[in-house]
Every structure is written in structure tokens, then in C-alpha cells.
Design brief:
Blueprint: H1 3-23, H2 25-54, E1 65-71, E2 77-78, E3 81-82, H3 83-93, E4 97-111, E5 114-123, H4 127-131, E6 137-138, E7 153-156, H5 158-164, E8 175-178, E9 181-188, E10 202-207, H6 210-214, E11 224-231, H7 237-253, E12 264-269, H8 270-275, H9 279-310, H10 312-320, H11 325-357, H12 359-365, H13 376-402, H14 406-412, H15 418-456, E13 467-473, H16 484-497, E14 502-508, E15 520-523, E16 533-540, H17 544-548, E17 552-555, E18 569-573, H18 574-580, E19 590-593, E20 598-606, E21 621-625, H19 636-641, E22 643-650, H20 654-668, E23 673-674, E24 678-679, H21 680-687, H22 689-723, H23 725-733, H24 738-767, H25 783-809, H26 813-818
Parallel strand pairs: 5-10, 7-9, 16-21, 18-20
Antiparallel strand pairs: 1-2, 1-11, 1-12, 3-11, 4-5, 4-11, 6-9, 7-10, 8-9, 13-22, 13-23, 13-24, 14-22, 15-16, 17-20, 18-21, 19-20
Length: 820
């Protein structure tokens, strides 16, 4: 056939397909909306998956970037390493491998609008060159700018430069004060540059001084850095990994007993190190979306099969007039493709609306800054998905239409044939598949909703009501030669405690739930421990248990009598006693801790609280008095020398205290940088955001699956009743009553539902494993959830079947017998 003639035939078939679809508006609208739900959810998820897993990282040749992860003797992962180890890696790696490193700190920056806390990335001078990134304005670090006297140079983030320095292009060479120390501005980074990628609060970059690096000990828990490696083309990562592991094994052999040190190295691609934690969640969502798409497509395939049966006379006439099977197949495939194309447009709109509705939650939950707008790769994927959907679910109805026998169709006129029965069985099979696929989604939604409810009602070990808290930072240079507790923290705490509406207030280096920093310290072997152990350490003021409502199990908490000149005291939690003292009496026992060992006597035992997350178990911890933690102690600077968290228990609604608290603090000490002020209730709610988002998304998928399945069942039974009108009329003419006819239709629906539910429950035992890491307070195969999901689907199916059943029962026998 000539190309022009073929094109004309295609255009004629398209016009015919459009006329056929316009003649059945109910069918067309139902099919388009059903497919739009499947294609729209798939498009929305692909935007997220593309941004997280597929879109290239914003670095030159990002596939060459790796993060070396240390693996210790317990197979735990250590993402940071001491400088001495990194230098030995560099020596063995050679010049073809670039190794950079960095550490994140919080500093105070003096800006034209006042002092503010900033995220500072202190790094080796080759960090940006290793990433393959150049400043937008100015220059990169020079190799010798890690030397003493040359390291006080700084690169500003674009946002900081634009918002605080009015995008002044003459800022190069000017000085800005970081913790009171002048730094010369040498450049401004590009607008969308973020490193570390998953820490968007980084606002300045400064070089690490070599003299400071050389004083760091191999086993120090404080002087470790996050390494980054770029491998030149031609070098196998596995070879480099073996070389680094050999070096690391030698380092581990010379480490002190009990030190937390890696024994070997595993190279992980930079992307995998960033997105590895969310990959299981994305996989679960991909499966959920695929199931919704499959349900929607199966539903439309069933509708198309019904149209084939309804149009069998038309198809027979076209075959009798000379249309070949290929022409019939092409005609029905074009109708299917037109439906999927219209569904893709509607699905695109649904995807855009969905992404906008969840934009804030997604950007806060994802490990990478993701562009959630639809772009060309997304549109290309949408076109491909549309074509695939049209072909995948249209080819079977098209093939059945093409293989219909013209003579049989013309003779049957309106009566059932063996072909009708085969197609009916096929439609029934599609419906059973829809039900089977819907069950895992409904069960997953139930498990996630139960998880959120369990998290909301889980015992935390402390009270969350009437508490307002914030993070406070003081400029280190103003208090370099002063006791921060005496000069800043205690006067501020007393001012807040005496403010009207405040019941009590306390300071702590870390408050439970919602914090981002945790300090571990070494607790040395004593007569009651078998070896050196590690525990979380916190500095606190005396009223912390009263503010949080934490109960004492034994002894007392730290008091005002725990002064600098009195016996050093500490309070441990129950997990500390259980793990390290075997549950025995802890009061009066002494512990030695810290890099330069200090000694304190246990005076009390606190109930456990959930420190990091509601679902995470409590870990061993001990508290030190802010008054007794002196500047000579190695824990002074990390725990209270720069920042503390202030918690206030209010008499009135805590939201009323939020604006007042900032005003009080600024009046007492204008040098203190105040973080976000929020309530403890809100912090706890935010901590379950990941599970809440998963519950919302999977719940939406479960609802869509239920809706589509119910619509499919309704459509199938309605069509079956229409095709069986003559049979029903005969039954009623022979004495069948309305109840018998209704029971016949409902029985057909129940049989299909039962088969589908049985298969779906069996598949749920496998799919639920993907949710294991998200669940809390419920098992992955909870019988109540399995029963409830099945009951909801079964009840919905019965309700959907009632309308066709009532219509069948209302059939006039005489009218039905006249129908051909």
C-alpha cells in the first residue's frame, strides 16, 4: 500500500473511532476517567522517582563520585572518618583518585540585618574541585588556603548573598564575621548549589585548617569528617575499595581497645548514599501505582470487551463487506489509543494538582531537593505510558473482535453464543484480577492508618502539652574566656522563669523528639561494666523533669546544690541501668567518661523517653549539670559552649507564648541567636510525618483501587443484565420471583468477589513485607486489618451489585420476550 493511501486509511479510521466513541458518551467518559486515575498517579510518582533516582546530580560527571562507608566489627556503618585515616587513603589511592572531606557546623554570622545562625561546611580545599563545581562569582579555594593564616576565606551561598548582602557584586574581598572572626569573601556559589546535598541549610563554606586536622586523634569521636571520592575513568571501584580496606584494616589493628573504628571500607555511589534510605519507600509506592494502573487498565479492558460483544453485528457486517482482520484490529486499537491519549491529558492535570497539593510535604520528606514540575522527560514518559496503556489493554479486545465469525454473529441476532460466553468468562477473569489487586492496597492502607494511630497514642515517657521550646546559640567569640552558663544561660533562664504565664523552664543540650544533633561519649570500663561503652550525654538545668513531666525511678535529679565546687553528679536513664548495670542499683556508682576522663557519681535514675523518634527504642543516656560542666571538660563546648535548647512549660495555651518568648530572650541578651519557636505537640506531630505521608498516599491508592473495582463490578453486572434480559424474562415467565432473580445476580457477584479476595489475601502476605520498616504497633499480617480490608471490598461490591440486581428483578417478562 502506498504511504499516502495508508495515511488516508488511518485518518478515516480515526474519524470513525471518534464517531463511535461519541455515540457512547457514558462508556467513553467512564473509560477516560478510569484510565486517567491510573495514568495520573503513575505520572505523579514518576516525577518524584525521576527527581530522586534518575535525574543527574548537579555535579560534573556525578557517576564518578563515591562515598566511602566504614564498616566496623559489628557490621555497623560509619559515614565519617578521622583525618589521619583519610590521609592514608590518599597515599594509597594515588593521583588518579581525588579524596575530599568536610564537616558541618553551626556558627553565628554578622549580617547587615543582625546576627544569625548559619550552617557552615568546613572542608578540604579540594572539595569543590572534586565535585566539579565552580563559584558563580569569584573563585574557588586555593590549595594552600588550609594553612594557618590563610584559611580565613569564605564562600557564600547564593541565597545568603542575595537576601543578606543585597546581591552586592562588590562583596569580593570584603570581610564578614563568622563567630567574631573576620573572613574574606572570595566567591558566591551558583543559585541551586547545595552540598551536602541532603543538608540545604548550608550557607557558607570555609577551609579546614591543617594544624587543627593534625591534632585530631584517630579514635576521637569528635574530630571526624565526611569523605568524598572522585574516581577517574578507567579505575574500577572494586579495586579502589580493596585498597582502602587493606589500609583501614591496618588502622583498626593499631586502634585502642573499645574504639569505634572501621575494619574495612565499602564504596557507595554518592546518589545511593543519599537516597538509599528512601528507596524501599519509593519501591513500595511504585508497586502501589502499578497496581492502581493495572486495576484501571483491566477495568477498561473489560469495558472494551463488552463493547466488542455489543458491536458484534456491526463487526460481522464489516467483515462480510470485505474488511480484513487487520483492519478490524487497527480500528479497535485506534479507539483504545484515543481513549488512552485523552486519559493521559486528564491524568497530566491530575498529576499536576496532586504534586502541588503535596509539594511542601514531599520536599520536606525527600532526601534530595527535587523539582516537582512537569518537564520534557516527564512528558516523554507520559506519551510512552499512554501508548503502552492503549496497546496493552486494547490488543485483546481488538484480537477478539477480529476473530469473530461473521456468519455466527449475523445468525445469533441478539441471542447468546458460545463466543459471548467465552468473552463473559474473560471479563469475569479481569474482574477477579481487579479484586485480587485491590486487596493488597486496602490492607496496606489499613496497616499504615493503624501505624499512624499507634504512633499518636504511643507512650513517650514525657508530656507534650503546654510546652514551647526553641534552639538558642551564642556567639562563641563573645564567651570564649567566660563560663557560658554563668554569663549567658543562667541569667536568661531566670528571666524566662519569672515571666508571667510561665510555670517553669529548663535548659538542655538536647530535648526529646525533633532535635538534629546527638552527642555520644565514651564511658570507660568500671567494676560494673565488662568493657568501654558509649552512651548519649546531655547537659541540663535542674527543672528539666518538671518541664517535661519525666518521672524519677530512683534517687533525685540534678539540683542547684550540684555546684561547681561540689561532688560531680550525674543522672542516668533506665536503659543505661538495664544495659550496663544488669538492672542492679545504680545509685552511688561512679562513671568515667569523655576523651579526657572525668568522673561523676550517679545520684538518680530517670524513666526512659523516646529521644529521636516515637518508633525508636530508648538508648542509654546520662545527664550532667550545666553548673558543673566546666570549660576544662572536653564535653563543655559541644554540649553547652555554643548552643542549648530552652523548654518552657506554660500555664496558658502554648501558642500565646511563642511570640513572647523571642521578645523576652532578645531583651535579656540581644547577642543570642533564636531558632524556630514551636510547641512540643507540633514537634511530635512532625516526627511522624513520614508515616503520615505514607498512610495518606497508600490510603489514596487504596481508595482509588476500591472505587475503580466497584465501578468495574457495576459495569460488568449492568452489561450482564442487559445481555441476559431475554433469559431473565423467560425465568420470570416460568415462575421465578423478584427475590430469586436478585439472588441470582448477587450470587454471581459474590462468587467473583470471593475468588478475587482469596487471591488478594494470599498476595498480601508478600506485599506487606515492603511496609515492614514503616509499621509500628501493628504486625504486617494483622488479622483484623486483613478481615477489615476484605469486608470493605466485599460490602462495596454488594452495594455495587444491588442496582443491577434490582434492575434485573424489575424486568417485565412480556417486554423481555419481545426483545431481540
Amino acid at each position: 500500500m502506498k504511504p499516502l493511501a495508508f495515511l488516508q486509511d488511518i485518518l478515516r479510521d480515526i474519524r470513525l473511532a471518534l464517531r463511535q466513541l461519541s455515540k457512547a458518551p457514558g462508556f467513553t467518559t467512564t473509560a477516560i476517567l478510569t484510565l486517567a486515575l491510573g495514568i495520573g498517579t503513575a505520572t505523579a510518582l514518576f516525577v518524584v522517582v525521576y527527581g530522586v533516582l534518575l535525574r543527574p546530580l548537579p555535579f560534573s560527571n556525578a557517576s564518578q563520585l563515591y562515598q566511602p562507608v566504614g564498616i566496623d566489627a559489628r557490621e555497623s556503618e560509619l559515614v565519617s572518618a578521622p583525618y589521619t585515616a583519610i590521609e592514608q587513603w590518599r597515599a594509597v589511592a594515588g593521583k588518579s583518585v581525588q579524596i575530599a572531606f568536610s564537616a558541618e557546623t553551626k556558627n553565628v554570622l554578622d549580617t547587615p540585618s543582625g546576627a544569625q545562625q548559619i550552617g557552615n561546611v568546613e572542608s578540604s580545599t579540594n572539595l569543590l574541585s572534586t565535585l566539579g563545581v565552580e563559584p558563580m562569582l569569584g573563585r574557588n579555594f586555593l590549595p594552600d588556603e588550609d594553612q594557618d593564616g590563610k584559611s580565613h576565606v569564605v564562600l557564600l551561598s547564593y541565597a545568603l548573598w542575595h537576601e543578606e548582602f543585597s546581591a552586592d557584586r562588590q562583596i569580593l574581598g570584603k570581610s564578614v564575621f563568622v563567630d567574631g572572626v573576620p573572613y574574606s569573601v572570595i566567591g558566591v556559589m551558583p543559585p541551586h548549589f547545595l552540598f551536602p546535598v541532603n543538608e540545604p541549610q548550608a550557607e557558607v563554606w570555609t577551609p579546614l585548617e591543617r594544624s587543627r586536622l593534625l591534632t585530631a586523634g584517630v579514635t576521637s569521636p569528635y574530630d571526624t569528617y565526611d569523605p568524598l571520592i572522585r574516581i577517574a575513568p578507567g579505575i574500577r571501584p572494586s579495586t579502589l575499595q580493596d585498597q582502602l580496606s587493606t589500609v583501614q584494616a591496618r588502622i583498626a589493628q593499631t586502634a585502642k581497645p573499645g574504639a569505634e573504628i572501621a575494619t574495612h571500607i565499602r564504596l557507595m555511589s554518592l546518589r545511593e548514599s543519599l537516597v538509599g534510605d528512601v528507596r524501599p519507600a519509593l519501591t513500595a509506592l511504585e508497586i502501589a501505582v502499578a497496581l492502581v494502573w493495572l486495576i484501571a487498565g483491566s477495568n477498561v479492558a473489560g469495558l472494551l470487551l463488552a463493547r466488542v460483544a455489543a458491536r458484534r453485528t456491526e463487526i460481522a457486517l464489516r467483515r462480510a463487506l470485505g474488511a480484513g482482520r487487520l483492519r478490524i484490529v487497527r480500528q479497535f486499537l485506534l479507539e483504545s489509543l484515543l481513549l488512552s491519549s485523552a486519559s493521559a491529558l486528564a491524568g497530566l492535570g491530575l498529576a499536576v494538582v496532586t504534586l502541588r497539593a503535596f509539594r511542601h510535604v514531599l520536599q520536606r520528606s525527600l532526601p534530595l531537593p527535587v523539582n516537582l514540575d512537569v518537564n520534557w522527560p516527564i512528558l516523554t514518559a507520559l506519551v510512552g505510558l499512554s501508548l503502552f496503556t492503549g496497546l496493552a489493554f486494547g490488543v485483546l479486545p481488538a484480537a477478539i473482535a477480529a476473530h469473530a465469525r461473521p456468519g455466527e454473529a449475523l445468525k445469533s441476532a441478539g441471542h447468546s453464543t458460545s463466543s459471548d460466553r467465552r468473552q463473559s468468562r474473560l471479563r469475569n477473569l479481569l474482574l477477579v484480577c481487579e479484586v485480587a489487586v485491590s486487596i493488597p492496597l486496602l490492607v496496606a492502607a489499613g496497616l499504615m492508618l493503624r501505624t499512624v494511630r499507634s504512633l499518636q497514642h504511643a507512650p513517650l515517657g514525657f508530656r507534650t502539652d503546654h510546652i514551647v521550646f526553641t534552639n538558642l546559640t551564642i556567639p562563641g567569640y563573645l564567651y570564649k574566656d567566660k563560663d557560658a552558663n554563668v554569663a549567658a544561660w543562667q541569667p536568661l533562664l531566670e528571666r524566662v522563669q519569672h515571666f508571667p504565664g510561665v510555670q517553669t523552664a529548663a535548659l538542655s543540650s538536647v530535648l526529646p523528639i525533633g532535635h538534629s544533633v546527638e552527642w555520644l561519649t565514651l564511658v570507660y570500663k568500671t567494676p560494673w561494666t565488662e568493657a568501654n561503652v558509649s552512651a548519649e550525654v546531655r547537659a541540663a538545668s535542674p527543672d528539666l523533669p518538671q518541664v517535661l513531666g519525666v518521672r524519677l525511678r530512683a534517687g533525685r535529679f540534678l539540683t542547684a546544690q550540684d555546684a561547681p565546687d561540689s561532688m560531680p553528679a550525674t543522672v542516668v536513664n533506665q536503659s543505661f541501668v538495664t544495659r550496663y548495670l544488669g538492672g542492679h542499683d545504680a545509685l552511688g556508682q561512679q562513671i568515667r567518661f569523655g576523651r579526657v576522663p572525668a568522673t561523676a557519681t550517679i545520684v538518680g535514675v530517670l524513666e526512659d523517653v523516646h529521644q529521636d523518634a516515637i518508633a525508636a527504642p530508648s538508648r542509654p543516656e546520662f545527664y550532667l549539670s550545666t553548673a558543673q560542666l566546666q570549660r576544662t571538660n572536653t564535653l563543655y563546648l559541644p554540649l553547652m559552649g555554643r548552643s542549648m535548647q530552652l523548654a518552657v512549660r506554660t500555664r496558658n495555651a502554648p501558642t500565646l507564648m511563642i511570640p513572647e518568648l523571642g521578645r523576652i530572650i532578645r531583651q535579656e541578651n540581644p547577642h543570642v541567636v533564636i531558632g524556630d519557636v514551636t510547641t512540643m505537640d507540633q514537634s511530635v506531630e512532625d516526627s511522624i510525618g513520614t508515616q503520615r505521608l505514607a498512610a495518606l498516599v497508600i490510603g489514596a491508592f487504596g481508595g482509588l483501587a476500591l472505587l475503580i473495582t466497584v465501578v468495574g463490578l457495576y459495569g460488568l453486572l449492568t452489561y450482564a443484565v442487559t445481555r441476559r434480559t431475554r433469559e431473565i424474562g423467560i425465568r420470570m415467565a416460568l415462575g421465578a420471583d423478584r427475590g430469586q432473580v436478585m439472588r441470582m445476580i448477587l450470587r454471581s457477584a459474590l462468587v467473583l468477589m470471593a475468588f478475587g479476595i482469596t487471591i488478594g489475601l494470599a498476595s498480601s502476605f508478600w506485599t506487606n513485607r515492603l511496609l515492614q520498616s514503616f509499621l509500628y504497633g501493628v504486625t504486617k499480617n494483622d488479622p483484623a486489618i486483613l478481615f477489615l480490608g476484605s469486608a470493605i471490598l466485599l460490602l462495596s461490591g454488594i452495594l455495587a451489585a444491588l442496582i443491577p440486581a434490582r434492575r434485573a428483578a424489575s424486568t417485565d417478562p412480556m417486554q423481555a420476550l419481545r426483545t431481540e
